[in-house]
Write a structure and sequence with these properties.
This protein is α+β, with helices and mostly antiparallel strands. The chain has helices at about 40-50, 90-100, 105-120, 135-150, 165-180, 195-200, 215-220, 225-230, 360-365; strands at about 1-10, 15-25, 30-35, 55-60, 65, 75-80, 155, 185-190, 200-205, 210-215, 240-245, 250, 255-260, 270-275, 280, 290-305, 305-315, 315-325, 335-340, 345, 350-355. It is about 25% helix and about 35% strand.
Length: about 375
């Protein structure tokens, strides 16, 4: 199966929801829509499903125009942020419901239900009703009901967003394995860069209804085409510092000048914007190439087992992401360190000029 979206536009109450979106999908592919809230991800899924119709543009399945075809006439399954289950049905009956509508033989239904239930670790809960399950188990049931139909198009709209961190990690691993076993087109929306990287596949980065970059997920992460893409594909958003190159050195602010080495040696003289992700700023020196910045603490934000330390470097605001729990006094002075080899370089207009040397996503996370 192939699916193509050509020049999709959608405006609601004079507000742009989608602007000139064109994408192609093939069977067996995993495709991520990454963007912040209101980026247009759900609107795009609903148009793909046939729940909504675009103001202009066309959707083709295997070369056939299906733009106006009802969702009931399309072989799709969809999972929403808020799990939806039939409250009076058992888990078995919930999962089996799409197959019963199709009129499938009871023996085949039973085999399919138990197969999918095993994939999602629900095999011991099939006789229960949804209210007897935890929120995570209920979401697994909703996902199982979508998978059991064996649809050619599987749409998942932030399906794990309401689950706790540990359960989300477990399901992300399970879903990767399940997607690999299917020949469907899988489209998965998320606001979280780490989740996008774990799921892999291809990615479309969306911002305010516009598609700002597409490609292989890890490649887009390594080489964001613009500051906007780097901000969306970094959590917290990528740190930015104004800098200038004069001859064989690069200058940050009034007091910091370092020699051009590695990938930075390619830079011509001029003004730039340097970007560095928060997990590549450290509280301790990591190697002899690190440069030291004297900063003022504005906030220490504890998030689970990590601490986001917001600091002020001159007039520039930076965020340091550190594993562990740290208590820092507001307005205290701390030194932070960065390796210049981790710097992205953008033009003053925001286009990517240089990215760090490629390395695995695991090392960049």
């Amino acid at each position: 199966m192939s699916l193509s979206m050509k020049n999709i536009n959608l405006t609601v109450n004079e507000e742009i929801y989608l602007k000139d979106i064109s994408l192609d999908f093939e069977s067996g592919s995993t495709n991520i829509f990454l963007g912040r809230t209101l980026a247009g991800k759900t609107s795009l899924l609903r148009i793909m499903a046939g729940l909504d119709r675009p103001d202009s543009g066309r959707i083709f399945v295997n070369g056939k125009d299906v733009t106006g075809v009802s969702v009931r006439k399309r072989n799709i399954s969809m999972v929403y942020q808020q799990f939806i289950n039939y409250p009076s049905f058992t888990i078995y009956e919930n999962i089996a419901s799409p197959l019963k509508i199709l009129g499938m033989d009871k023996t085949k239904i039973d085999r399919r239900v138990r197969q999918v239930a095993e994939m999602l670790h629900l095999e011991s809960m099939l006789d229960r009703i949804p209210t007897e399950l935890s929120g995570g188990q209920q979401q697994r049931c909703a996902i199982a009901r979508a998978l059991v139909k064996d649809s050619t198009l599987l749409l998942l709209d932030e399906p794990l967003v309401n689950l706790d961190y540990k359960l989300r990690e477990e399901l992300q691993i399970d879903l990767q394995d399940i997607f690999k076993q299917r020949d469907a087109i899988v489209v998965y929306t998320t606001t979280e860069p780490a989740e996008a990287l774990k799921l892999g596949g291809n990615i479309a980065v969306l911002d305010k209804g516009r598609m700002i970059q597409t490609g292989v997920t890890s490649q887009v992460y390594h080489k964001p085409a613009s500051i906007k893409v780097a901000e969306v594909f970094s959590d917290p958003p990528i740190n930015l510092l104004s800098c200038s190159v004069d001859g064989a050195s690069i200058k940050f602010g009034q007091n910091l000048t370092i020699p051009l080495k590695g990938h930075l040696s390619q830079l011509a003289s001029g003004n730039y914007i340097a970007g560095i992700r928060s997990n590549h700023l450290y509280l301790n020196c990591q190697n002899q190439n690190d440069i030291k910045l004297e900063t003022i603490v504005e906030l220490a934000e504890i998030n689970g087992s990590e601490t986001f330390i917001h600091v002020d470097y001159g007039t520039t605001k930076l965020v340091v992401q550190e594993v562990g729990v740290y208590s820092r006094k507001i307005d205290s002075t701390i030194m932070i360190y960065l390796d210049p080899s981790n710097l992205f370089i953008f033009s003053e207009s925001g286009s990517l000029i240089l990215s760090p040397d490629n390395r695995s996503p695991e090392k960049l996370l």
